[in-house]
Design brief:
This protein has one domain. The two termini are 27 Å apart. The chain contains five helices and three strands, in the order E-H-E-H-H-E-H-H. Helix content is 32%, strand content 11%. The protein is of the alpha+beta class. 32% of the residues are buried. The chain has a three-stranded antiparallel beta sheet with strand order 1-3-2, sandwiched between helices. Helix 1 packs antiparallel against helix 4.
Length: 152
């Protein structure tokens, strides 16, 4: 089983997805860790498989999520790479508590939910760096003013 650095929740009800997203944010998961994809609010209800795979979702699972999305189901994703394992477990519990299922559990919710998450992998996402910063030696770069929200 391929490991994943992203926990995904599929929701048949978009209101449940919004509640799950709001709960995750209220529990300290930053906007750069959590996202909500609602096919009803997009011009075309289709996800780019390459984006899902590059985000750290195994290929077969990415195909499952793209299919669910194309059928009108909302997705909530939580980037768990680099987070403490307790935070990843909290994200899974919150998603399940709001009625989510994933590629492992399926719509029938028979299998385990997110059995393959891996938090110790480096994050597949990167902070934005301006080209002029790359040209300066590290000692000449101004200190970062951005503080990343990180759940405990």
């Amino acid at each position: 089983m391929a490991e994943s650095s992203v926990v995904v929740g599929v929701f048949e009800d978009v209101d449940q997805a919004r509640q799950a997203y709001d709960s995750l944010r209220a529990q300290g998961f930053g906007a750069d860790y959590v996202s909500l994809a609602n096919p009803q609010e997009m011009d075309r209800p289709q996800l780019d498989l390459r984006y899902l795979i590059e985000a750290g979702i195994p290929d077969e699972e990415a195909r499952f999520y793209a299919q669910e999305f194309s059928e009108g189901h909302a997705l909530v994703t939580v980037r768990v790479a680099g987070l403490p394992p307790a935070s990843a477990r909290k994200a899974v519990a919150l998603l399940q508590g709001h009625g989510a299922y994933d590629a492992h559990a399926g719509r029938e919710r028979r299998g385990p939910y997110a059995p393959n998450i891996r938090t110790e992998q480096p994050s597949p996402f990167f902070d934005l760096t301006y080209p002029e910063d790359l040209a300066q030696p590290a000692s000449d770069q101004p200190p970062s003013h951005r503080q990343e929200e990180r759940p405990e």
